């Protein structure tokens, strides 16, 4: 019980597996603790001089702000963030897909060739002004219990938000918003979609109606054109009732896992995230990519300090340059808003043992596994290349996942050490616990316990394989814990940048 997790022989800190009182002799190390060490926090393994780098994962996670003695607690009081040069070299390799891969899931094949993992009806508001009408429609359908007669329909989802107007119609912010709405209304997990506008907003429905030519399942209406609240609610309710039989008329068939796109997400991270759940998820993501599927890593501020590990895996200099361009954008964006890239670790992250953005990022990139980086996407940009992709987004989980789903993700894996509760309809979300203590406390919200890795009961590859199997089963229709608990109606949260006018 007095041992540490030491991730690399070059590390000068280890991670505690239990709460350690002061003067605790540490097994396998010729040291005793000087301070009480919280669970998941770092212990100094050998003397570190002020200004010297602090090493974890054989990578720099920060610098000593004072002299640190062996056995001392290493945290925000004696570890600080500093910029430093990070070496990288573009890989220029190609992803090798197993041509004999024969893994299938029970998916829903749409008429346009897309494959769904769920079968919802969506009501999408183009502006906050139509959010109430959107929710009215959904509530009336739910309270009528009419969907009980249509077991193949997973439910009806309100896509509401706080934007859609008060912005420049040709701005970067409007382009992001348009991509996000487009991505949701075209998502294969919706059998039918009603796009509801007010009528006078900046985000006119005409911005989105190009898809009418492609998808007969998408309907556009505005409150003003339909004559007000009651009339549009009654009209949409009538139309929904007329299409329920059609929406219900689906069956799941064996489909290749190459149709799966996995959103890789973490939230409420702790000192174990980069040791257990994140690398195990990386194994699962690599398994999917080798079978022809895709994965999307995001949260640009949370790869800062570890970007060299992704660039080392880029398939071309062009892809590497795209990533560096997004990081430069973020440096400028934070500076003009009186912030820094190191402001990212939240209070909960720090209580869980994390310190700088460097440490957080090094753990976060592990979710991406070891696959070749095929492309770097703008926020909510549709996925173009199969395999491992990165999508630019904030580190704020609901905003980031919203962009991933808009890009085409049809399953979400979300690692957490503190106990984040999350769902994002119309896509199922799986929760992966980084430590056993939190899993046991919140088992009703967690789908897999990856804390067994730290306990030595399972290795990363075995847990990664379990995650992959769970992804396939969930894509086939098995409900995740977040779905059972009813999460997903309120988490749509598009990224808003630029001037609100």
| Structural domains: how many | 3
Beta-strand content estimate: 15-25%
By secondary-structure content and strand pairing, the structural class works out as: alpha/beta
Count of strand segments: 21
Descriptive notes:
By secondary structure, the chain is of the alpha/beta class. The chain folds into three domains: 1-80, Archaeosine Trna-guanine Transglycosylase, Chain: A, domain 4 (Roll), CATH 2.30.130.110; 120-249, 3-Layer(aba) Sandwich (Rossmann fold), CATH 3.40.50; 260-484. The chain is built from 13 helices and 21 strands. The strands form five sheets. The protein has a seven-stranded parallel sheet, sandwiched between helices. The protein has a four-stranded antiparallel sheet with strand order 1-2-3-6, with no helix packed on it. Helix 1 (131-144) links the parallel strand 10 and strand 11. The longest helix is centred in the middle third of the chain and has 20 residues, at 229-248. It is globular and about 75 Å long. The mean pLDDT is 94.
């Amino acid at each position: 019980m007095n041992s540490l997790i030491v991730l690399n022989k070059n590390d000068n800190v280890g991670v505690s597996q239990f709460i350690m009182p002061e003067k605790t002799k540490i097994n396998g190390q010729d040291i005793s603790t000087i301070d009480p060490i919280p669970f998941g926090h770092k212990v100094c393994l050998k003397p570190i001089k002020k200004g010297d780098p602090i090493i974890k994962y054989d990578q720099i996670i920060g610098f000593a702000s004072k002299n640190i003695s062996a056995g001392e607690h290493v945290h925000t009081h004696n570890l600080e963030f500093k910029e430093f040069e990070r070496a990288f070299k573009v890989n220029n390799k190609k992803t090798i897909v197993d041509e004999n891969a024969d893994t299938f899931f029970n998916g829903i094949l749409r008429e346009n060739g897309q494959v769904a993992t769920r079968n919802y009806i969506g009501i999408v508001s183009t502006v906050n002004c139509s959010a109430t009408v959107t929710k009215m429609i959904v509530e009336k359908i739910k309270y009528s219990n009419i969907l009980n007669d249509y077991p193949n329909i997973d439910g009806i989802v309100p896509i509401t938000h706080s934007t859609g107007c008060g912005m420049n119609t040709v701005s970067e912010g409007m382009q992001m918003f348009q991509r996000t709405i487009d991505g949701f209304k075209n998502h294969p997990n919706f059998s039918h979609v009603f796009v509801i506008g007010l009528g006078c907003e900046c985000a006119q429905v005409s911005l989105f109606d190009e898809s009418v030519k492609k998808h007969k399942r998408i309907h556009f209406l505005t409150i003003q054109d339909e004559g007000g609240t009651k009339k549009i609610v009654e009209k949409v309710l009538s139309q929904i009732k007329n299409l329920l039989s059609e929406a219900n008329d689906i069956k799941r068939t064996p489909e290749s896992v190459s149709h799966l796109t996995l959103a890789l997400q973490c939230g409420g991270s702790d000192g174990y995230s980069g040791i257990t759940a994140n690398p195990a998820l990386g194994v699962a993501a690599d398994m999917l990519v080798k079978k022809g599927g895709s994965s999307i890593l995001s949260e640009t501020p949370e790869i800062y300090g570890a970007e060299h590990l992704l660039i080392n895996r880029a398939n071309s200099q062009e892809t590497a340059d795209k990533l560096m361009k997004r990081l430069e954008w973020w440096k400028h964006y934070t500076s003009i808003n009186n912030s820094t890239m190191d402001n990212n670790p939240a209070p909960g992250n720090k209580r869980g043992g994390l310190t700088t953005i460097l440490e957080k990022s090094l753990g976060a990139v592990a979710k991406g596994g070891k696959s070749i980086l095929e492309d770097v996407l703008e926020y909510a940009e549709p996925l173009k290349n199969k395999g491992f992709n990165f999508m630019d987004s904030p580190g704020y989980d609901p905003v980031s996942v919203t962009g991933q789903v808009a890009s085409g993700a049809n399953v979400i894996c979300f690692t957490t050490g503190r106990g984040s509760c999350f769902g994002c309809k119309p896509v199922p979300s799986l929760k992966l616990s980084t430590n056993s203590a939190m899993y046991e406390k919140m088992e009703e919200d967690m789908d897999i316990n990856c804390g067994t890795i730290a306990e030595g009961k399972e290795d990363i590859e075995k847990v990664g394989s379990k995650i992959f199997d769970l992804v396939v089963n969930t894509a086939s229709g098995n409900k995740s814990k977040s779905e059972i608990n009813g999460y997903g109606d309120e988490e749509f949260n598009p990224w808003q940048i630029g001037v609100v006018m």
